[in-house]
Amino acid sequence: MGSCIVKRDERVRVDRIRKDDVGWRLSRAAYVVFLFAVLFGSFFITLWLTEPQVVSEPDNLSDALRLAAYPIEDSSDLMKSAQDTKLIPSPQLSGHVDVIRRVDERDVVLAG
Questions:
Q1: What is the pLDDT of residue 41?
Q2: 72-101: b or e for each residue (b if 16 or more CB lie within 10 Å)?
Q3: Among 16, 28, 45, 93, which is least packed, fewest CB within 10 Å?
């Protein structure tokens, strides 16, 4: 058959082309990953921005249950929670409470 004579300069040029090809493939893969990240990111941002507002259902809970849902540590928390649940102070009930004792899950005894 025939023999092929390759000059040294041609071999160096072929090696450079292969190295450039690998770099080009890596940069292309990074570009594709970036495009997918942008695609998925924009998709989830669109979902977040176009999320329908949940219509609040009428509150059928008793006033005590609504107030019990708030964490209360002192009297200022109690006042703020009562205002948030739209409770109004009663002029018929006034005084200071010294002791609060729970009888069962539903009943409470106050002393003062």
A1: 96
A2: eeeeeeeeebbeebeeeeeeeeeeeeeeee
A3: 93
The length of the chain is: 112
Residue 56 lies in a domain: no
Contact by Cβ (8 Å): 83, 67: no
DSSP 7: -
> Do 70 and 44 share a structural domain?
no
Tell me how far the alpha carbon of residue 51 is from its chain's centroid: 14
Nearest-angstrom CA–CA distance, 100 and 110 = 5
Tell me what the pLDDT averaged over the chain comes to. Answer: 77
Confirm whether 96 is domain-assigned.
Answer: yes
Please give the residue range of the domain that contains residue 42.
1-51
- Residues 95 and 103 sit within 8 Å (Cβ to Cβ): no
From 55, 59, 39, select the one nearest 47 (Cα to Cα). 39
Q: Are residues 1 and 45 in the same domain?
A: yes
Q: What is the pLDDT of residues 80-89, one digit of tens each?
A: 888 888 888 7
